[in-house]
Amino acid sequence: MAIRRIIRMGHPLLREVAQPLDPNEIGGLEFNRLLTDMIDTLHDYGGVGLAAPQIGESVRLAIIEIPGGETRYGEFAPMSLAVFINPSIHVVDPAIAGYWEGCLSVPGLRGYVERPQRIKVNYTNEHREEREIELSGFPATVFQHEFDHLDGTLYVDRIGDTRRLSFEHEYERYLLPQMDG
Length: 181
Ligand code: ZN
Hints:
The chain has 181 residues and is α+β, with helices and mostly antiparallel strands. The protein has one domain: Peptide deformylase (Peptide Deformylase), CATH 3.90.45. Helices cover 22% and strands 38% of the residues. The protein has three helices and eight strands. The model has no long low-confidence stretch (mean pLDDT 94). Bound molecules: zinc ion (ZN). Zinc ion binds next to loops.
């Protein structure tokens, strides 16, 4: 187990379309080491998700862990750490809503991104089981953000109005108060 370095915007690997993970590799030594490294890295850096390309591994693997309760994004159930292999997203309802997103590969910034808020995700888990879940609200945004990494897309690509891209300090000082209510 090891905490890996998270690569940042500008690194070309973040712009690659990641390779599907061979299901036969799931549970193998190499897979387990990569997954453990991702979990250790996410917990060290802090955040709600991490995609393998962010630590320099161009495979379609991501982990998501959302602390629940009442947050500035609203109230929702916590999601304990889950592993998503070769995920695909299907939009259930195209209605969009926006959140101020951040990214461990784009440190120090926040940007307002609008995305569909009801999606269905098909994926394989770490036990090689095929799964399907439906998500709405903030978790739907988190999943789309993480899986975008597998296609070489960063949230900054999806900011509709670049005036709504801000440093964290300025976001908290000037923009956050306007969002309440
Ligand atoms: Zn990210």
